[in-house]
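Lay summary. Proteins are chains of building blocks that fold into shapes, and those shapes determine what they do. In this project we predict the shape from the chain. Here is one chain we studied, written as its sequence of building blocks.
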Amino acid sequence: MPKVKMPRKSTAIDMTAMCDVAFLLLTFFMLATKFKPDEPVTVVTPSSINTTLLPDSDVLLFTVDKDGRVFFSMDGQPKRKKLIEDLNTQYKLGLDDKEIKSFVTGASVGAPIKDLKQYLSLSEDERKKSGLDKGIPTDSANNELGAWIEYGVAAQGGSIAKLKYCIKADNQTPYPKIKEILDTFKKKHIQKLNLVTNLEEAPKGTAAWEEANAPKK
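And here is the predicted shape, written in a compact code that computers can read:
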């Protein structure tokens, strides 16, 4: 018997369901994503040829503006919650749940510990107008920077070995203020620090320039 030749038909794929899924995912991420809060202070860091990138986790970051105000920041909301709860217990700050959440989900903090309750009760715009963001005290009479370092380290849990201490100072920060900060770390027996800088091209003729421009094998 002769074979029956079946007619060929073009394959048609209905993309409607896939488009629906794509828009559902897009809507989910738009509604669920929380943007990083704005930092309370802007600094212009000095330049260097160091290409090491600032890690995204396990970092204690100390930002210093041109007026010498020191701000503290740390990654990880569970870690931030432990830190502020420990400070609240130790210094009897009387923080409520809303104020604790403000610290956990907020940006850098730069206020004396005695002003933390009032500081955290305000919005970001109100803090700037209140004058409470005068920076963490670092002078010898009242060096609260050491307390932030201690409680920040304690909040890290099992990741202390990977912890990095980073200083992000403005190009115009007075050197005595930087020295106070470095002396505080030295008293805590912390010798390895990371200075945050802007990347610039290595000077022509230097070893770094020759390495960067060496022909690829």
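What the prediction tells us: The longest helix spans residues 16-32.
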